[in-house]
Specification:
single chain, mainly alpha, 1 helix
Length: about 50
């Protein structure tokens, strides 16, 4: 019986961990996209100056 009581808690923890991982992955992807955009702007500026 105790295992039955722990299962929903373990499931909730697993769901929370998956949500946190997804949130971190989205944040990392957004940061990478922002960095790539910044580098593109810098490259375009360097090419325009030269």
């Amino acid at each position: 019986m105790p295992a039955d009581h722990r299962r929903p808690v373990a499931r909730a923890i697993a769901i929370a961990a998956a949500e946190n991982s997804r949130r971190r992955a989205i944040g990392l992807a957004f940061n990478c996209a922002a960095a790539a955009l910044l580098l593109a702007v810098l490259a375009a500026t360097a090419i325009a100056v030269i």
